[in-house]
Amino acid sequence: MSFDVPDDHRYLESHEWVRTDDDTARVGITDFAQDELGDVVFVELPAEGDDLTAGEGFGVVESIKAVSDIYAPVSGTVTAVNEALFDRPELVNEDPFGEGWMLDVTLADESELDDLLGADAYRDRIA
Amino acid sequence: MTTYSQASWTDEDAERYEPLLSEKASERVDIEDSPLPEELTRDSLELPAPAEPELARHYTRLSQMNYGVESGPFPLGSCTMKYNPSFTEDVAALPAAAVHPDRPDRTVQGTLGLSHRLQEYLGRIGGMDAVTLQPPAGAAGEFTGIRIAKAHHRHNDDERSEVVIPDSAHGTNFATAAMAGYDVVELPSGEDGRVDIDALDAAVGEETAALMLTNPNTLGLFERDIERIADIVHDAGGLLYYDGANLNALLGRARPGDMGFDVMHYNVHKTFATPHGGGGPGAGPVGVTEGLAPFLPDPHVRRTDGGYEYYRPDHSIGKVHGYYGNWPVLVKTFAYIARLGDSGLADASAKAVLNANYLAEQVPYEVPFGPFHHEFVASAGEQDAADVAKGMLDHGVHPPTTKWPEIVDEALMTEPTEGESRRSLDQLAAAFEAVHSEDDGTLASAPRRTAAGRIDQVSAARSPRLSWQALDSDD
Questions:
Q1: What is the pTM of this model?
Q2: What phi and psi values does residue B27 have, to the nearest 5 degrees?
Q3: B87-339 has which fold?
Q4: Same fold, B87-339 and B347-462
Q5: In chain B, whose CA is at the least distance from the CA of A87?
Q6: Cβ-defined contact of A89 to B462 (cutoff 8 Å)
């Protein structure tokens, strides 16, 4: 089975993605992650204005199979939260890189992106 | 014409809908001359009014919608769903077994005497020097045991920060360590499913308060290196904690105390066939070696010159439950042990192991780890373990525990228990066989012969209805 791994995203070993647009970084979990989890039933996210630290847990995603922490790919302040997920957690399954996004974060340190996996490296990781 | 139909919860098909008692027959009752204020009262009330046979049949049908250990085999691995012999209920219901917990020691010497004997029985079974009966459940026993370990280290001015737990352990172990204020160090299992000695060596150190170990472990495997494991933990100054969840496999044959364990809990429902708590009263006695006895919960029973008394152990961790524990469950435990005796207990563990091995020989699924004791974990392989479980319901048996422990892919954790006959083991094997040869489509729509069909777990979790008002508002 092949999973969607867009080239213009960067990835964490723990299956989160980040996509940057100027100094804003959008964060979510990967297609592979949603498939492993199965039907997502609940997503817990931080509030706008909260600070994230790269590598630390910032939220929880719960499926009928498991409860997993979600880790921050980058450090920064949360500027937007995808509140649609609170009513429709299935968006994470249906469109993990689109409507299933989780947070927008102001990028505190751009060099942190260099520590993340590129699309090819992440494809190898889940192969 | 009405024909017999399976009782059913679903109302989509009126033929199979089980009416409420009030829908079968009801009667309007007038209420007159109520002493209550008018705004609080009604003029009349609609009450169910079935004839007695109708009432009896209603409740019998409701009971038939359920599946219990009195319906058929119930091999829910790790949970140890034993049949509970009813004589223990009779003993616990004797008037002499019911005493008010506030009565002074000297007026309830029989109760204290029985407690003391049960402490001694459990001590002898586990190879422990002292036992408390107070913890109200297995998990509470774990918490008590780890609190005792913590008090011991603190007493020696040797506070430690970590508890080491294998990845195959019950989730309660991790919760216990965290609740007691420890960091959890998870120990990866070795290739044979047992404790990896090298990994243990690396994980254990001067911060190790305890290693929590289940033996045999949740794969049903005996930790053959237990003496070496004990040495590694003890050499680092840590304690060895025995999770008694699988003591039923060793009953009357091997003792945790002899293996080097310092503190343990007993799951009386798994080991001695008392009812599962299910949120109600359970019991999880804790045994310790002599050096840890001063830390036991308060009060504890001891013998005096002429009888028995409650006392507070010198360095007691305090109370872990109101009064003296859940007494009726402890009486049932005592009755079971006394009835079986040494040879009966040893026979129970032998049959538990024999039954698991007999069944495993016949299941068509691969069992990756062995040789095992009282339970085995098969892999559903290409099939979804949850679908296998639903499919088995259609064959008239309760399924095994699924998808745990996670070290086996699509795990089917199976524990028939000692109480099953060869005939019911064959029935289980036939159910495994039938489901194994079914196609995915059939399994995905199972069960179809039960009172409730396939439960929509996703909707239930995404939009739970948690009260009757929520059901009502649907109309």
A1: 0.86
A2: -145, 140
A3: Aspartate Aminotransferase; domain 2 (3.40.640)
A4: no
A5: B462
A6: yes
